């Protein structure tokens, strides 16, 4: 295919923001050689990286099929599949997609910008998934959108950089793995180990672009060096961070050479900002997390993801490796790249330890079970979630920490989890890897043994496939780091419930299993009205509980639905669930070396 012949592919898509105010994209798909028995087309039920059935086809409207100028029959066979009648010659499918999902997973369009993931807008022609295709991205007709540009890592066929035009992909899998942003956005460019990188920022902001580019370059270079310490070769020839800033938001979704991010505009660095704010560290950690996924899950995959089945759930018990390990390395790479201080890193790690400790579900569900149940439990949490499930992100990160420190301690720091990641990369991800079938469900222990010489089957069984408490204190002691625990939110601890504020009223969002509220009969959704006959709200409850002692009985009035109820509640002792990590000032020489080898 040449630049002068952009439409010669058997499959050609055309997408245009037909009505930004109505949030409608119009898509046309032309297939030169459809199935002569009748062509089936389907929209994915989920998007890789977000493990929940989302049924994107529910946003598809006004679909029709034509062969030349003749309209042909189109039958819907299930919730996301259509079958066009047999026809001779090219088949054209034309449809519209309602795009009003301001997230990293779907599609969003208004007069300020457009964004889409291919899973939301591009029908898949069954039997032709491996065929190359082209996609023509057109601008909206509105005069207000005349200055719009395009940001994507799709291969340019007949389009200028940052411009509308024709792009190409080698397969449907590649087509849907390059999100597209269009509109007026800020562009930040930099290089990492010689590879062009860019970040676009959509939305109003006052970002210090120079500082952000410098910090991102250091983080990206550190990750490339981790996986390829000798060649320092990235697995892509360009990389793009597509960032949308809003008043309050946080999230990311990885792709093979780009990522979509949503963040609070206050989390971006501003000119003159001297210190590392919590918000900016959180934003850099998000960018680091999604960038790490370019290796760990986009190329190193669970066996069941090779290939993805986009029509249904793809079950794996290994998300604690792919998401948990990535969550371990995201902040660690900020430290190793010199972007944050050791104290910043320890504070972030302590927050993860505290978050896991506040989740009673860690004693009931393993991270392997959490991985498998992601489709129905982790991504569909209810008021009982803290009691029933554990996060394969946060506890998975702590499992990675325990494995890393154990490997370092038992090998005298000659081996580490870094060696395991590089072994995973060589076997299951690198371009010249001999086994491109994905990590088998039972394959991690064997690979770890090969990479480190250690048999850690018992530890993996207890930490990842069991619900044992993790030996964090003992392992961190090897690095001369101590854990200090203190009570967290006193009022929530004493009540044994998580609270939320709705319309200035206190509501129980979760009653912790066997906590004071649960024992008294209070439930999620109960609206707290009074304690010992005095009205309570978000401001005065803390002061009232500070005057009470553990074991003291109090009367609580609460509305359940529209019925006023009274409960007698015995206050719990505030648990030491908040962790603080303290680096010993004068460690022994051996422990100082251990800490340096781990954190540098």
What labels describe this entry?
disordered N terminus; Neutral Protease, domain 2; Immunoglobulin-like; eight-stranded mixed sheet; 600 residues; Zincin-like; alpha+beta
3D architecture notes:
The longest helix has 19 residues, at 209-227. This protein is of the alpha+beta class. The strands form six sheets. Strands 5-4-8-2-1-12-15-14 form an eight-stranded mixed beta sheet. It has 18 helices and 29 strands. The chain has four domains: 11-183, Immunoglobulin-like, CATH 2.60.40; 185-277, Zincin-like (2-Layer Sandwich), CATH 3.30.2010; 295-468, Neutral Protease, domain 2 (Orthogonal Bundle), CATH 1.10.390; 490-570, Pdz3 Domain (Roll). α3 (209-227) packs parallel to α4 and α5 crosses α10 (394-410).
The quaternary structure here is single chain
User: Largest beta sheet, briefly?
Assistant: 8 strands, mixed
Number of helices: 18
- Mean pLDDT equals 95
Work out the helicity level.
25-40%
Radius of gyration: 26 Å
- What order do the strands of the largest sheet run in, or round the barrel if closed? 5-4-8-2-1-12-15-14
* CATH superfamily placement of the largest domain: Neutral Protease Domain 2
Itemize the secondary structure elements and their pairings.
Blueprint: E1 11-19, E2 24-31, E3 40-42, E4 60-67, E5 70-72, E6 74-78, E7 81-84, E8 91-98, E9 107-109, E10 113-116, H1 118-121, E11 124-125, E12 133-137, E13 149-151, E14 155-159, E15 165-169, H2 172-175, E16 180-183, E17 186-192, E18 195-202, H3 209-227, E19 239-246, E20 250-254, E21 258-264, H4 278-292, H5 319-336, H6 342-357, H7 367-372, H8 374-378, H9 385-388, H10 394-410, H11 417-428, H12 444-452, H13 457-463, H14 472-477, E22 481-486, H15 490-495, E23 497-502, E24 505-511, H16 516-520, E25 527-531, E26 534-535, H17 541-546, E27 553-560, E28 563-570, E29 578-583, H18 589-599
Parallel strand pairs: 1-12, 18-19, 19-21
Antiparallel strand pairs: 1-2, 2-8, 3-7, 3-11, 4-5, 4-8, 6-7, 9-10, 10-16, 12-15, 13-16, 14-15, 17-18, 20-21, 22-29, 23-24, 24-25, 25-26, 25-27, 27-28
Helix pairs in contact: 3-4, 4-5, 5-6, 5-10, 6-10, 11-12
